[in-house]
Amino acid sequence: MAWTAADIPPQAGRLAIVTGPTGLGYETGLALARAGAEVILAGRSPGPANESLNRIRAAVPGAKIRFEMLDLASLASVKSFADKLLAEGRPIAILVNNAGVMMPPTRKITKDGFELQFGTNYLGHFALTAQLLPLLRQGHARVVNLSSIAANPASIHFDDLQFEKAYRPDPSYGQSKLAMLMFGLELERQSKAHNWGITSMPAHPGVARTDLIDKGPGATSLFGVVSRLLPFVLQPAARGALPQLMAATMPGAVPGGYYGPDGMGGMRGNPKRIDPPRQANDLAVAKRLWDVSEQLSGVKFA
Fold it and tell me: Which residues are catalytic?
């Protein structure tokens, strides 16, 4: 029988952080709140976040959920968010690194000068996870990095990580999502090597119906055209969120496993453990990416 959100075990007394309060983040926060977790939805836009909070509170009376400001395109904002949680001192049981931007047609940069997709989708989450490590260790946390099927043909362009030489939306997005996948796999190896006591299980949603297309490549892009002409390819956001919920909560989830849909080449279907693309298992590239990311972010895993 297919795994669904109804299979999430009770989460009462556990703190979960989900970055990105709309789309997949909303569905993930809703499911965790229904299971009894205390949920922090973290994002850079209070308006959409408050709308998500109101919807979740209406669906789950008594839900323990709140919004915190976090702009992953700003390392200062990441530090401010982490410092606030560190001051509260509450152990974190679940961290879902979900937020992201998708294929802006022209090259944009973060507040720190990084290419927007690399900086937001990946580097901001890398810095966030590193700075929350003490609380993640206290909570014996599960960390779930959201990747994408766009990672499958991608590679890490160490000679031009920021796509300054020749920006193209697709390879840049794919690199950011491959980086998230490789970070998730390397985090599990680092945790075992250093006895951090956390587990890392990356996931991807397939092709889910969210607002990422409208905010990124737009309605006239290939993704936009496919979503209009072949709507059956896209699965609802609630189903797209199942792989990351499975990784975050299922008792039998495999540390270091990768979770995604089981059908149509990973585009849709029921959540299950899947094989990562071959290049994601390159240990030398993963370690180099980790070291470069510590240098770029100015944040090290203690």
Answer: 173
